[in-house]
């Protein structure tokens, strides 16, 4: 064994005491920190008979009340960053000003393949890897500074709005949610800022999708990110659609012509909540969506009474003296559930020169199987439950029809998923408009996932034949959904 270090040459160790208690020597207060002599080094594995040093003696504080004034947080246990115990999923949108531009990824298991040919116990595995955001692209609002009339809380955090937001992601293999031939999805802790009025960090969980080591898998992940980036916000949260209509009267208009342009079905329009009896119809000229400036969520939807007052006032203002009295006005309130998970960004690893890694095989399709030693990009989305089982013995007809309606609205919005299997429809307790503790499976919430083969009409090249094929894709997928959900009678 090596000679012990000279105690005289050993540096002293500063030990901090909790607030309210001062170190004392011989009953007299000293400074906040006390220097302790660690003594000679003893290795118990080679010196089992070494005599232990006596336990240190501490004098009693003069002010015993100081013990009870200690901040309890000084005793908080260290939180292991990879653990998910009691961690709530992120189910709100990230503010534009705080949307992470950089993602520090802790991946000791090399799930992202950022290390090529890693060795056992490779010391590089513990080093975090920097990723940068590809989608959504930074908006003008994300770099906006605080307004001159901002409140003190907003002014205090102006640096967060004008700085470079950074988040940390922690990946572990044992928290895998699912995997397939092209990718794997992991539940992962994410640490970031979520409140523009505070500098506090939040620790939440998200679903992180990573591509396998073939070029087609990377292309599928890239395509899926483009789809999420194109989805409107209303596809990612429960919203309410409120319409002004004439009084409900029977109509000879065929159901297909009475269907609203946003893809809401006849049954939704004629539900009990709408205030109309079954069989009542509306022409396109009788349907008017009220413009509230932005999508209305279920939590901030105006009441029917206030809306009726607003509409009545508008009608009266427009009524000219001597003109025919206005028709009775009724309001139709249609709740539209979310279709897809919320999108929290698509990130690429950074090269040594600081540029994002964007390698791809331009000539390969999503089904190509060329092995590539590339580090995977990362797609972050909301956790939305588990895959459904569409068998009639498990899901009621009404529940399966709800899933079918999601695909109809997806198609009406200009998107096709092209992989409509049970495993790609998730269910979780609902509804999403109530606090998480109040959600139950009596009101399930469904989401469509896995858009690696999907297409968006707005992203297709108008010079190619693809836009003309879109209607064929919709018809084909509609038939596949009916078959998968066992809706064919």
If you had to describe this structure to a student in words, what would you say it looks like?
- A seven-stranded mixed barrel has the order 5-6-14-15-10-9-7.
- Helices cover 17% and strands 21% of the residues.
- It is globular and about 75 Å long.
- Helix 7 packs antiparallel against helix 8.
- Strand 8 and strand 9 form a beta hairpin.
- The chain is of the alpha+beta class and 489 residues long.
- The termini are far apart.
- It is built from eight helices and 20 strands.
Layout of SSEs?
Elements: E1 13-16, E2 24-25, E3 28-29, E4 33-36, E5 102-106, E6 129-135, H1 152-156, H2 158-162, E7 166-170, E8 176-179, E9 183-192, E10 202-211, H3 215-230, E11 239-246, H4 255-258, H5 266-269, E12 288-289, H6 304-318, E13 329-336, E14 343-349, E15 378-381, E16 386-387, H7 397-412, E17 415-416, E18 425-430, E19 440-448, E20 455-456, H8 466-484
Parallel strand pairs: 5-7
Antiparallel strand pairs: 1-4, 2-3, 5-6, 6-14, 7-9, 8-9, 9-10, 10-15, 11-12, 11-13, 14-15, 16-18, 17-20, 18-19
Helix pairs in contact: 7-8
Tags for this model:
489 residues; alpha+beta; seven-stranded mixed barrel; three-stranded antiparallel sheet; 20 strands; globular; disordered N terminus
